[in-house]
Design goal:
Strand content: 5-15%
Number of helices: 16
Number of strands: 9
Number of domains: 2
CATH superfamily of the largest domain: Queuine tRNA-ribosyltransferase-like
Bound molecules: zinc ion
Shape: globular
C-alpha cells in the first residue's frame, strides 16, 4: 500500500515500485484524498497543489499500481448530510473519470472506488451509482474500499460507535457478492482485528508510523496499547533491551527513544506479527472467539457488540 501524495511531495518523477524495490507483491495505491482534505495539517510542509484525479491516476500508474484508489473526498462527521452528499457525488464522479482514463490508456491498474457513508441511505445511493457505472462502462470493481471510518472510530461517544456499525452494516448489505472489502486507515492491531471481525478482507494502517512520530511504541500482544519510550525508560532504565525484533535486537531503550526510524520499524514488526497471528487464528478457527474476548475488554467495542453481531 502506497500513497502517491507522499511520493509526489518528495519526487518530481514517479518510478516503478516493483522494479525499484524489487517487490513482487501486489501494489495498491491510495489516492491522497485524505491528505488533501487535511490540508491545514500539511500546509507548512510543501503540500501538493492541484492534485487532480487525472494527475493522481498518472502517478499511480507511474508507480506500477495493480490497484489504484479513485481520488475521494472524505466525509466530515460535523458537516450537514447535504454537504457530505456533495462530497460523495464528487468522489463518484472521480471514479467514473478514473475508469474512463484507465480504459483509454489500456493500463493494468484496476480502479478501486472508495465509498463513504454514515447510514444505509447514503450507502445505498453510492452502490446504486457504482452498479450503474459498472454497466455503462462495462467495468467491474473487484475491490471496494471504505473510507471516512477514522473519525467515527476516534469519536468515543455513543454516536461514533453507532454510526460505525450502521455504515458497516449497510456496506455488507450493498457490496455485491465476490467483491472484497478493504478498510482504509484501520488503526491499531486491535482495530485491525475488529475490522476483520466485521467482515473486511483487506485493510491498511499507518498508526505504526504515527505512534513512532509521537515517541510511542506498541508491544506484541498488547492489542494496540502504546507506550511512550520515556515511560519505559523510567521503568526499566535506558540500557534495557525489551524486544528482540530485528529493529531492537542491537538497540537499547535509549537508542529507541532517539530514533523515530527504529521506533517505526519496531512498530511495523509488531503489527506484522499481530497480522500473522490473526491469520493463524482464522485458519485454526479460533479467531471469532479470541476477538470477541479481546473486544469485550473495551467499552467502545462492547457497545458495538451489543448493537448486534454484524456479519454473523
Ligand atoms: Zn522491537
Amino acid at each position: 500500500m502506497v500513497n502517491p501524495y507522499y511520493v509526489r511531495q518528495k519526487y518530481s518523477k514517479m518510478f516503478d515500485l516493483g522494479q525499484t524495490l524489487r517487490f513482487r507483491g501486489t501494489v495498491f495505491c491510495d489516492s491522497g484524498g485524505f491528505q488533501l482534505s487535511t490540508k491545514s495539517l500539511l500546509s507548512r510542509k510543501n503540500p501538493v497543489k492541484r492534485y487532480t484525479q487525472d494527475q493522481v491516476l498518472l502517478d499511480q500508474i507511474g508507480l506500477g499500481s495493480d490497484y489504484a484508489a479513485a481520488l475521494d473526498f472524505p466525509l466530515d462527521p460535523n458537516a450537514s448530510e447535504r454537504a457530505n452528499m456533495a462530497r460523495i457525488s464528487k468522489s463518484l464522479a472521480n471514479v467514473e473519470r478514473a475508469v474512463n482514463l484507465v480504459q483509454t490508456l489500456k493500463t493494468k491498474a484496476t480502479i478501486v472506488p472508495v465509498v463513504h457513508g454514515y447510514n444505509r441511505g447514503m450507502m445505498r445511493f453510492v452502490f446504486q451509482r457504482l452498479e450503474r457505472l459498472e454497466k455503462e462502462l462495462s467495468y467491474a470493481f473487484p475491490l471496494i474500499a471504505v473510507g471516512s471510518l477514522v473519525p467515527l472510530y476516534a469519536d468515543r461517544s455513543n454516536l461514533g460507535s453507532l454510526r460505525l456499525v450502521h455504515a458497516f452494516q449497510a456496506l455488507l448489505e450493498f457490496v455485491p457478492n465476490h467483491r472484497a472489502i478493504h478498510v482504509m486507515g484501520a488503526g491499531s492491531p486491535l482495530s485491525m482485528r475488529f475490522y476483520y471481525w466485521l467482515g473486511a478482507q483487506s485493510l491498511d494502517t499507518r498508526s505504526w508510523v504515527t505512534n513512532a512520530m509521537f515517541g510511542k511504541i506498541v508491544m506484541p500482544g498488547s492489542q494496540g496499547g502504546r507506550i511512550h519510550t520515556s515511560k519505559l525508560i523510567a521503568k526499566f532504565g535506558p540500557k534495557a533491551n525489551i524486544c528482540n525484533c530485528p529493529s531492537c535486537k542491537n538497540s537499547n531503550l535509549r537508542n529507541l527513544s532517539m530514533s523515530r526510524m527504529k521506533r517505526a520499524a519496531h512498530n511495523a514488526f509488531t503489527y506484522l506479527r499481530e497480522f500473522k497471528k490473526i491469520r493463524r487464528e482464522l485458519r485454526a478457527g479460533t479467531f471469532e472467539e479470541n476477538t470477541v474476548r479481546l473486544l469485550k475488554k473495551r467499552v467502545f467495542f462492547r457497545r458495538i457488540i451489543k448493537v448486534g453481531s454484524l456479519s454473523k
